Amino acid sequence: STALVLFRQDLRLSDNAALTAACLAHERVLPVYIHAPSEHSPWQPGAASRWWLHHSLQALRGQLGAQGGDLHLIAGAPLDCLRDLIRASGATEIHWNRRCEPAAIAGDTVLKAALREDGIAVHSHAGGLWSEPWTLATDAGQPYRVFTPYWRKLRARLPDPAPLPAPRAREWLRLPGSLPTAALGLLPAIRWDAGLQASWTPGEAGAQELLEIFADDAVSDYAKGRDLPARHGTSRLSPHLHFGEITPAQIQRTLQDRAARSGSRQRPDLEPYLRELGWREFAHHLLYHFPHTPEANFNPRFDAFRWAETDALSLERWQRGRTGIPLVDAGMRELWHTGWMHNRVRMVAASFLTKNLRQHWRHGASWFWDTLVDADLANNTLGWQWVAGCGADAAPYFRVFNPYLQAARFDPDAAYLKRWLPELASLPAKALHEAWRHPAALAAKGYPAPMVDLGASRDAALAAWGAMPA
Ligand code: FAD
């Protein structure tokens, strides 16, 4: 018998429930990827995500190719494509891993019903989360809106992780008509992707490599190191998690095994790191239960907030890293160059946009959507609404990050600032942390003056917040 396995945001062979089930039950397995970007409308993958996807598909094809198979790549409406493939392969079953973005759920529901009507057995499996969003509820049976009780419940339920090994099909079926990956047109026409290329290895092997590096070193100092943007103090697994090249269960298994092998005195405390993965789960829980939140405030009170008028010039200065505020500019340039930004700097850059410039958080969310290699509808929505103060369990609005204090505290020798603002590298750290005292020195290096006064713009933001009806 023959089964199709439909790959989507699960571009891995190991710990892949759909693939494993198909390989166990069938002689022949046809792995398929259907390129259908309009399926994700209005959140079609941005430019950096498309770059990643191209390379991740290539990596998966390479893995399957090494076993004599291939990822059958096609573009078009999923139902039509699948019907053609079922006809050509004689498949009687389809397996896939579930997703939880609103558009994806809607698409999968329609697909499942139509295929079942055709007489095809459709099996969906748990995908790349510890816990699917509909499996946790408060004692009153409601979705969670606050992280700490959510995490307490999830943490208590986490089983000892047992990720599945990569399965091997008895026969990987190959059919004619599979497209070359380049035919999907995912790579940019103007090659701005050199920085991405130098920073990342998309695919399952790249994910495992980063996990090894993190487990060897940074995890033991994560609670402190995670806040220092100059260091590789975090795992940088976010794009790999987004594309499903690695799962939380695999990460937890590796870290726990490594910790168990280290002497009891050096045994790292894994809790702070697992808790961050918990935020990812919480973000998916929220997106599932409140599917309107990529566009609308989670807290409707903020519908009355007076944002400043959209200012294309200000937005462009922020996007290009030319605001004149060093930590914001360093972060925005890191993002442009590598497709990633350190979490602390994301918070500072987002606070500057939504509070000091009072531009709507959606402007920031859509720029991040286009430029982040880890752009993720659940995490990006949570991150922006959290900083803007209008989200679930958000930072209180009056918490306005001071980018100078943040830089002095978390980048004391200005190593991060100097890496991303090379024109300022010859200045002493103090000049960068107190840039307002040294306007001439910074201007002489071609660095712009601050586009707003931080104190006055903060006061204006707080006044707008205070004017909101309770
Ligand atoms: P680590 O510190 O190693 O954490 C491990 C994993 O936990 C991450 O890979 C990620 O999957 C998850 N995680 C960590 N912090 C958070 C968090 N605050 N919220 C949700 N999940 C988290 N993350 C994305 O993956 N995609 C986004 O589009 C995204 N947009 C953001 C926008 C804003 C304004 C902010 C403030 C944060 C955003 N984040 C987003 C969350 C966070 O910044 C990144 O997940 C993190 O920086 C990724 O680096 P890492 O893999 O080294 O993280």
UniProtKB/TrEMBL annotation:
Keyword rRNA processing in annotation: no
UniProt-listed Pfam families: DNA_photolyase (PF00875), FAD_binding_7 (PF03441)
Cofactor note: Binds 1 FAD per subunit.
Family, as annotated: Belongs to the DNA photolyase family.
Site residues (Electron transfer via tryptophanyl radical), renumbered to this chain: W307, W361, W384
Binding locations of FAD: Y222, T234, S235, R236, L237, S238, Y273, D374, A375, D376
Organism placement in taxonomy: Bacteria, Pseudomonadati, Pseudomonadota, Gammaproteobacteria, Lysobacterales
Keywords tagged on the record: Chromophore, FAD, Flavoprotein, Lyase
Cofactor requirements of the protein: FAD; (6R)-5,10-methylene-5,6,7,8-tetrahydrofolate
Origin species: Thermomonas fusca
Protein name as annotated: Deoxyribodipyrimidine photo-lyase
